[in-house]
Amino acid sequence: MLELGLFYLAATISLVSTILAVTRYNAAHALIYLIISLLASAIIFFLVGAPFAAVLEVVIYAGAIMVLFVFVIMMLNLSVRGADLERRWLQPGMWVFPSILCLALFAEITYMLLQGENLLKGEVIGPKQVGIELFGPYVLAVEIASMLLLAGLVGAYHLGRRYLTDVRETES
Amino acid sequence: MTEAVTIPMEHGLLLAGILFLIGLLGVLVRRNIILILMSLEIMLNACGLAFIVVGAHWGIADGQVMFMLILAIAAAEVSVGLGLLLQVYRRIGTLDIDAASRMRG
Questions:
Q1: Chain B contacts of A59, Cβ < 8 Å?
Q2: Could you tell me if B27 and B39 are in contact, meaning their C-beta atoms sit under 8 angstroms apart?
């Protein structure tokens, strides 16, 4: 039953933080809530017996992809009055609620670690089975994904060039 | 084996559906390009959640394989999307997507 309780708590945190992420006016605050939502999703993955997917969710989604968003928000430099804005962002109301959600997730994972192996009663599908599936029947999908990532890399490099506008203006 | 309490698949799928709807609503309602990209990420994550829950319910690894493919798609999509965002911001000077309504070369 405790497993169910943990699942519903993580689901509630995920829903609340996702709703808050969509309704924020400030992009950086939305990003914080989105990261909390992804961490809650990772805990749900772990609870249903997919630890490898949980690790990938934290490392790639909440880590790498969200860092891309952070870099873009930083590069856009939306705050003209930077220090003033920073002071307003650090008001207690802005970081208390994300901290509470993070602490709830941390309490969940502490509980799971203290419980040890007893918690996962269901069937656990580890990285070995996933790897066998991935490079056995799904090897064509892996190749297609690699080509997609290469296309994304080339596209991002082309679109991110600073002088793209100048080139186009001189051509026309 | 009798006391094994597993998470009901329907509730996981319901959670995935609600998350997907929130993301869809965000794409439709928000006009900030960063927020629209974040809502797309929410939708992709909801799809991955549905795959994981169903794969765990049937005890097969295919759900996690599909989740990894979704991860690759999300990474490619967000990199191209953020590159487009930078170009839009350099050309128009705002992140309002309604301002980028002129489809001329």
A1: none
A2: yes
